Amino acid sequence: MVIAQQFIAGNPKEKTEVPEGRLKREAMAVICKAVEHGSDEYNDTVALRDEILRKPLGLKFEQSELDAEKDSHHLACYENGQLLACLVLIPKDGGKVKMRQLAVTEHRQRKGIGSTLVVFSETYAKDLDFKEIILDARKTAIPFYERLGYKTQGEPFIQVTIPHMFMSKGLPKDGAQTGKDR
């Protein structure tokens, strides 16, 4: 199983798999890894999600919401020890995992970090034998996910006061077709 991956800044295709304890400390190298619920790193991801996703909508996390994330997978990208991006994967029935709350620091948005983390999350999910990633994308984020091979399904809906669309992407075994190839 991939514990962490090191990416060359903003290029999710150039990566090196490394054991977490042996991550290289090269300039401009982005490290993506899982973080443990309740850890200091987890608390940092909650703060980033709150700042980028919740505060602009006038929302804040309730402790019960955070407690419910205990069985989820928390993934994050770092550069030189600084948190750049995070997301949550929630296991669902039928080989599916739900991606939630992708957040990227303001100064690194639109620079490939979000894409890097999504690609890492796909590898991570495949390593855990998930077959499909599902998500509720904000309307403004749909083109981002489409570029990564996610497909829209159904009709738009309102969630946390803003328009969303259900999206999904199959996680084929290596060498099989991806969502973009279908």
Keywords:
182 residues, alpha+beta, Aminopeptidase, 4 helices, 9 strands, 39% strand, globular, disordered C terminus
Q: If helices are DSSP runs of H or I spanning 4 or more residues, what is the number of helices?
A: 4
User: Could you say how many structural domains there are in total?
Assistant: 1
Q: What is the succession of H and E elements?
A: EEEHHEEEHEHEE
Largest pleated sheet: 9 strands, mixed
Query: Can you name the CATH architecture?
Result: 3-Layer(aba) Sandwich
User: How many beta-strand runs?
Assistant: 9
Report the CATH topology name: Aminopeptidase
Descriptive notes:
This protein has helices at 40-54, 63-67, 113-127, 142-147, and strands at residues 4-8, 11-18, 29-35, 73-79, 82-91, 96-104, 132-138, 151-159, 162-170. It is of the alpha+beta class and 182 residues long. The chain has one domain (4-134): Aminopeptidase. It has a nine-stranded mixed sheet with strand order 2-1-3-4-5-6-7-9-8, with helices on both faces.
Brief sketch in words of this structure:
The chain has 182 residues and is an alpha+beta fold. The protein has four helices and nine strands, in the order βββααβββαβαββ.
Describe the secondary structure blueprint for this structure.
Layout: E1 4-8, E2 11-18, E3 29-35, H1 40-54, H2 63-67, E4 73-79, E5 82-91, E6 96-104, H3 113-127, E7 132-138, H4 142-147, E8 151-159, E9 162-170
Parallel strand pairs: 6-7
Antiparallel strand pairs: 1-2, 1-3, 3-4, 4-5, 5-6, 7-9, 8-9
